């Protein structure tokens, strides 16, 4: 693992500028928090492809839908909590139902807007979008994954939700790492336990895996960057090869990655799953790492859980 | 990805239609829409009938469209933001040949292209799916903005209800249209004064609506939305306008227009007529009240 830490919103900002320069149909629809979501450079360098609707999420969603009907590929950019819940029904009605090529690209996923408090932390968003037909839901694990998946999203037709971190998270990939939407990355092999993680928690699973290795426990780590469509085969491989799965996410344990994995495992009927994530409780103003700790989203907890009998 | 097509003008064939003929068309649309609702025993007659004259004027005279090529990139757009009034739009699309007229007998049935609310994936000629109120104007703003950015000269017409103006998103869209000087956008308000739970005036009054729209930066017109002559005259003025501002037609209409027992009645927002009521309605629509 690299020593670097970078926020995944930076990966989005860099990627969207890059692809915007090569494709005039790529637009950014900002909702007055573009600077914070890293579209500042895009707005300056590509003003003809940039729209700012002001503090009006619902209109932003509809404007993006209207743009998309003409072949434009709009990225609606805001914070995860607003990009899911404040405009959720507009996205359902005007983007997902008519299956338009609109991307919702949100910074401030999970508890990363830590000191902003519960109003800005987003623990429900992926669950909401996971249940809307036609929608793809992704959370890259690091800066390079964010860059790569933003490019994949731009090149793949359909409504998509991309969730980024406000806070810096460790860089685990490099510029050349390839990502495929809907295909989990198996980062380590393992026999004793599987850890399936998404977004900013992938590095925690990797650190836990190293600790476990020292204790003679072999852990398989999956980066499940696409929550929907879920890589069911990758989950089923864990069910059949290992039978003990820990899910890790910076999202409510209800209806996020933990739920999605449980659904597959339960139908397969041959595995036990433990869910590590936000414990169905609101956050508060506190350091990001502290908020994770309050919810048991830590390397120590993952290691302890993996060592337990269950 | 780009779906910009040839720049040849392929629409615009139905321009010189007289007011008298448009009145006939509106009558035909009313009868068709009511028949659809009667056959389906489901639908929203009140708001379909109030909007019939506006819809007829758009489809038979104003819009630069080509029914043989519903997705022609340079076509004018029409968004029925008050999606529940769709039978009146379906009637126009069917009569113009966007689809076989036999579909007009399938409203709200399983497998139909004519969903309870307009579905752009199923029905040719629908420019955006609607049904959840308050959202169509934002989509129209997006389409009008795309035209400006790409130097296209198509226009966008959005028909909203007046009850629908309760939705905050409408005002977000109004402010954006004004800020971006979308003079290619026309918002038409089917101001029939009634919403589901009661008269708009008693629920959330919209107060000086025309004035409000003017102060929001729109070029405004307040007309009798069931008077074809006034509608045509207004559309002509809008076409000739050089103010550079988005347009708003506040069209005073009568809910259930043309059917005596439905006119101005709350109960006919979302109810289908029975056989006897249907027969009466068709007679009244044919001869006029």
TrEMBL record, chain A:
Q: What are its cofactors? A: thiamine diphosphate
What is the superkingdom listed in this entry's lineage? Bacteria
Identify the species of origin: Blautia hydrogenotrophica (strain DSM 10507 / JCM 14656 / S5a33) (Ruminococcus hydrogenotrophicus)
> SUPFAM superfamilies annotated for this entry?
Thiamin diphosphate-binding fold (THDP-binding), TK C-terminal domain-like
Positions of the Transketolase-like pyrimidine-binding domain: 6-171
**Gene3D superfamilies attached here?**
3.40.50.920, 3.40.50.970
Recorded protein name is: Transketolase-like pyrimidine-binding domain-containing protein
Question: What parts of the sequence cross the membrane?
Answer: 61-82
Similarity comment text for this entry: Belongs to the transketolase family.
The keyword Transmembrane belongs to this UniProt entry's keyword annotation: yes
Name the keywords, alphabetized: Membrane, Thiamine pyrophosphate, Transmembrane, Transmembrane helix
UniProtKB/TrEMBL annotation, chain B:
Q: Which residues form the signal peptide?
A: none
Family the UniProt entry places it in = Belongs to the transketolase family.
- Keyword annotations of the record: Metal-binding, Thiamine pyrophosphate, Transferase
Q: What is this protein called?
A: Transketolase N-terminal domain-containing protein
Q: Which SUPFAM superfamilies match?
A: Thiamin diphosphate-binding fold (THDP-binding) (SSF52518)
The cofactor(s) it depends on are: thiamine diphosphate
Which InterPro entries would you find in this protein's record?
Answer: THDP-binding, Transketolase_CS, Transketolase_N
For this protein, what is any one GO molecular function term?
Answer: metal ion binding
Residue span(s) of domain Transketolase N-terminal: 25-280
């Amino acid at each position: 693992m690299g020593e670097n830490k970078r926020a995944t919103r930076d990966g989005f900002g860099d990627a969207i500028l890059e692809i915007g320069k090569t494709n005039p149909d790529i637009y950014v629809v900002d909702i007055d928090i573009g600077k914070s979501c890293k579209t500042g450079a895009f707005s300056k360098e590509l003003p003809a492809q940039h729209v700012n609707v002001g503090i009006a999420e619902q209109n932003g969603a509809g404007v993006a839908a209207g743009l998309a009907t003409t072949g434009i590929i709009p990225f609606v950019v805001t914070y995860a909590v607003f990009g899911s819940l404040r405009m959720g029904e507009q996205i359902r009605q005007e983007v997902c139902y008519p299956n338009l090529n609109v991307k919702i690209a949100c910074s401030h996923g999970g508890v990363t807007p830590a000191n902003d408090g519960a109003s800005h932390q987003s623990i429900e968003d992926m669950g909401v979008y996971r249940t809307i037909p036609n929608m793809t839901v992704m959370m890259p694990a690091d800066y390079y994954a964010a860059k790569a998946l933003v490019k994949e999203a731009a090149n793949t037709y359909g409504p998509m939700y991309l969730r980024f971190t406000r806070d810096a998270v460790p860089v685990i990939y490099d510029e050349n790492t390839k990502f495929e939407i809907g295909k989990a990355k198996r980062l380590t092999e393992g026999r004793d336990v599987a850890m399936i993680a998404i977004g900013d928690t992938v590095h925690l699973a990797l650190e836990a895996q190293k600790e476990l290795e020292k204790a003679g426990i072999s852990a398989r780590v999956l980066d499940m960057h696409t929550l929907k469509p879920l890589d069911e085969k990758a989950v089923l491989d864990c069910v059949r090869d290992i039978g003990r799965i820990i899910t890790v996410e910076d999202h409510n344990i209800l209806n996020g990655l933990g739920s999605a994995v449980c659904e597959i495992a339960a139908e397969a009927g041959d595995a036990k799953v433990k869910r590590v994530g936000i414990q169905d409780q609101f956050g508060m103003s506190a350091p990001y790492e502290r908020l994770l700790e309050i919810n048991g989203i830590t390397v120590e907890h993952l290691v302890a859980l993996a060592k337990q009998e269950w | 990805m780009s779906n910009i097509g040839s720049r040849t003008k392929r629409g615009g064939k139905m321009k010189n239609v007289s007011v008298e003929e448009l009145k006939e068309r509106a009558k035909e649309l009313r009868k068709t829409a009511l028949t659809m609702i009667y056959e389906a025993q489901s639908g929203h007659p009140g708001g379909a009938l109030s909007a019939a004259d506006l819809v007829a004027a758009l489809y038979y005279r104003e819009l630069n469209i080509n029914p043989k090529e519903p997705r022609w990139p340079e076509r004018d757009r029409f968004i029925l933001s008050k999606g529940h009034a769709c039978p009146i739009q379906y009637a126009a699309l069917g009569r113009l040949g966007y689809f076989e007229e036999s579909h007009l007998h399938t409203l709200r049935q399983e497998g139909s292209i004519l969903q309870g609310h307009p579905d752009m994936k199923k029905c040719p000629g629908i420019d955006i799916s609607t049904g959840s109120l308050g959202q169509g104007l934002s989509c129209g703003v997006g389409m009008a903005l795309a035209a400006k950015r790409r130097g296209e000269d198509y226009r966008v017409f959005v028909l909203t209800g007046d009850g629908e103006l309760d939705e905050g998103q409408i005002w977000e869209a109004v402010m954006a249209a004004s800020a971006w000087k979308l003079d290619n956008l026309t918002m038409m308000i089917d101001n029939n004064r009634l919403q589901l739970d009661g008269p708009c005036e008693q629920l959330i009054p919209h107060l000086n609506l025309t004035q409000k729209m003017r102060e929001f930066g729109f070029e405004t017109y307040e007309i009798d939305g069931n008077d074809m002559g006034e509608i045509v005259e207004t559309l002509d003025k809008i076409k000739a306008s050089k103010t550079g501002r988005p347009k708003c037609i506040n069209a005073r209409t009568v809910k259930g227009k043309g059917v005596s027992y439905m006119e101005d009645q709350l109960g006919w927002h979302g109810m289908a007529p029975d056989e006897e009521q249907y027969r009466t309605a068709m007679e009244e629509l044919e001869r006029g009240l």
